[in-house]
Amino acid sequence: MMKIRRRAVDPAVMISCCYFLLVVIIIGGADFCNGGVTSRFVRRLQESPDMPLDSDVFRVPPGYNAPQQVHITQGDHEGKAMIVSWVTMEEPGSSTVTFWTQTGKKKSANGRATSYHYYTYRSGYIHHCTLRRLEHSTKYYYEVGTGGNTTRQFWFKTPPEVGPDVPFTFGLIADLGQTHDSNDTLTHYENNPMGGQTVLFAGDLSYADRYPNHDNVRWDTWGRFVERSTAYQPWIWVTGNHEIDYAPEIGETEPFKPFTHRYHVPHKASNSTSPHWYSVKIASAYVIVLSSYSAYGKYTPQTQWLQKELSNVDRSETPWLIVLMHSPWYNSYDHHYMEGETMRVMYEPLLVQYRVDLVFAGHVHAYERSERVSNIAYRIVSGGCRPVEDDNAPVYITIGDGGNSEGLVTDMTEPQPEYSAYREASFGHATLSIKNRTHAFYNWHRNQDGYNVVADSVWFHNRIWLLND
Ligand SMILES: [Fe+2]
């Protein structure tokens, strides 16, 4: 039986495992605790429908042609630019953003508006404006709708200058949707005392495609729902399967049409030719976004880009190498089982070679954290095919538990595979708090508890700077 040596194990996990062993011995059982922890903590299983259209979280801001669905994301590779996006419904209005610091003069930047049709739906005017030459670690106030009919003001804080020991806290959310559970997840993230500064969002935003003809009104409601966070801190976007919106039966054959019109990302800054794969540097982290639903075979643009990208990462500048994707490679739930396998076969050797620290994915509507394992020795002629302990491998975390209308998945493969360290079918979110080049503290919070309750937490040691600790 393969023995996986555990590293950086949470004391709570060790206590739980020891307790389980004790119980097994007491009842005369003959097996060992051969996997990690499967939490049976499931307080609520029923699916939750989307919040009604007249919910207060979807309220249209007052005023003629008022900007709505405001969201920001990092606008360059280094964190000195911010893309501000919003929608006006009645008329194009102005694409100008005015921005200022508490002590500085007002500046303005001009953006552009776009729109699209989807079957019988016609979008509002979607504005994207990049604010450049910003100072690091600075609070900026900004106003959208400038020169138009109704203006609205927001603020954000730019990330600190990139450096190896710069602390930074990320929020981790995926598969959010727009149910009451989604609302709980977002509220818990907002109230999390860890204080997330940027959200790494691992795909599946609105779930509008679950409605007849992919009713894109639900893209608009989602944009208004999350504005209370997305207008104030950057969300780093990943495309999931619910962003594909491919519906040839109604003549919609352009994949990702609503997403790519509504959510701009700085892919050109990392020499990517597609908004579906790109990278950003944030504080001491290098974040690589991959697309589970774009071509990733050999010779494809995404593969060529990833190979070059990984070789360019300077871990003395950004020690923490984080990869985001939608479909997980290591998933011991029944749902979406092995959907990420073909991408794993293609990309896992690269991620191990370059000692990626952490891989976050969504898609499976539950939570799971892996041990550090790899499965790259497999050759079809030799047949060996099992994940093995690998200090150079990332930890894989599935965080597809945002709370959408498809509900939780609860069926798991049994027994728990040895590579699976912790799994639980509850909604929630996580935070990753990087302390310096060697240590990062990670927490997963389930929704049903108070804001301070942590269900799974672990210290991560950097794969370059503390590999053998
Ligand atoms: Fe998904």
From TrEMBL:
Q: Which residues cross the membrane?
A: 12-30
Against Gene3D superfamilies, the record matches this protein to:
3.60.21.10, Purple acid phosphatase-like, N-terminal
- InterPro entries named among the record's database cross-references: Calcineurin-like_PHP, Metallo-depent_PP-like, MPP_PAP, PAPs-like, PAPs_C, PAPs_N, Purple_acid_Pase-like_N
The protein's UniProt keywords, in alphabetical order, are:
Glycoprotein, Hydrolase, Iron, Membrane, Metal-binding, Signal, Transmembrane, Transmembrane helix, Zinc
Every Purple acid phosphatase C-terminal domain range = 393-454
Cofactor(s) recorded for this entry are: Zn(2+); Fe cation
Domain (Purple acid phosphatase N-terminal): give its ranges: 67-158
Enzyme Commission number, as recorded: 3.1.3.2
The record ties this protein, via CDD domains, to: MPP_PAPs
Entry's Gene Ontology molecular function annotations: acid phosphatase activity; metal ion binding
Reaction catalysis annotation: a phosphate monoester + H2O = an alcohol + phosphate
Outline the extent of the Calcineurin-like phosphoesterase domain: 169-367
**Domain of life where this protein originates:** Eukaryota
Similarity comment text for this entry: Belongs to the metallophosphoesterase superfamily. Purple acid phosphatase family.
Q: What is this protein called?
A: Purple acid phosphatase
| Organism from which the protein derives | Kalanchoe fedtschenkoi
The upper taxonomy is:
Eukaryota, Viridiplantae, Streptophyta, Embryophyta, Tracheophyta
